[in-house]
Amino acid sequence: MINKVAIVLNGPIDCFLTGSIRDYAFVIAVDGGLNHLVKYDMDADLFIGDYDSVNDDAKGYIETSNITHVDYNEDKDKTDFELALEYVKEKCEIKTVDIYCAMGGREDHTMTVLNNVLAYSKDLNITVYGGDQAVKVLNEGDEIKVVNRIDVTSFSMVPVDEEFTVSIKSAKWELDHETVSRSSSLLMSNKAMGDHALITAHKNRAFLFITLFI
User: Fold this and answer.
1) Could you give all domains of the chain from N- to C-terminal order, each with its CATH number?
2) What CA–CA distance (Å, rounded) separates 162 from 176?
3) What is the distance between the alpha carbons of residues 51 and 76, in angstroms, rounded to a whole number?
4) Strand order in the sheet with 196-203
5) Are the beta carbons of 132 and 186 closer than 8 angstroms?
6) Does residue 131 come out as left (phi exceeding 0), alpha (psi in the -120 to 50 range) or beta?
7) Using one digit for the tens of pLDDT, what is the confidence trace for 107-160?
8) What are phi and psi of 76, to 5 degrees?
9) Sign of the CA dihedral running 53, 76, 107, 110
10) Chain centroid, CA 203 distance in Å
11) For residue 16, what pLDDT is reported?
12) Which residues neighbour 167 within 8 Å (Cβ) at sequence distance 6 or greater?
């Protein structure tokens, strides 16, 4: 059993989803994300959504299974995904969350997902999976290891704030308390050396993108 919450969205499906989703302690299907789970014969514990992208098979699953469903009207001020994060924050004991099928589709959807993740990153430990990447938020004071494995091809950081101060050790390009502007490309396409690279966020925040060979 993986002591995490999995949230499945309605973006393009990828190999991350079909790996270990059955082993999660709690699985949330966000609207059309239930289509993916039903297609691959995987169960969800909770459905959250307004049904605007749910297919007939997924609707049948809701009607015939014991899944708990929290239904919303299409006319609302928050996306189904943000409502799912809100649910985990307020009602789940587990605060570590993996998000699947979140990237690779409409760019406005991807950017909104990442902005939602940023907003909840101080309350939840979130990793987003999609395409060939895993994404995390580096909050001020965070220290994260990027392992040097054959399936990890590179890592990049994109500052969220106007300036981001970071140290990188045991990497192809190392930095020591470097302050990087949001418009800079200095933090793109680095590689761990030795067992792992060590990233320390000293001031402000950034997205960490880990590109995988899959």
Assistant:
1) 2-131 (3.40.50.10240), 137-212 (2.60.120.320)
2) 19
3) 13
4) 143-147, 196-203, 163-169, 175-181
5) no
6) left
7) 888 899 999 999 999 999 999 998 788 999 999 999 999 999 887 889 999 999
8) -150, 165
9) negative
10) 22
11) 67
12) 175, 176, 177, 178, 198, 199, 200, 202
Cβ(84)–Cβ(28) below 8 Å: yes
pTM reported for the whole predicted model: 0.91
Residue that is written with structure tokens 């966000």 in the block? 30
Using CA atoms, how far apart are residues 144 and 197, in angstroms rounded to an integer?
8
The span from the first CA to the last CA of the chain, in angstroms, equals 24
| Rounded distance between C-alpha atoms, residue 23 and residue 199, angstroms | 29
- Rounded to an integer, the average pLDDT of 178-192 is 97
In sequence order, the 6+-apart residues with CB closer than 8 A to the CB of 173 are 190
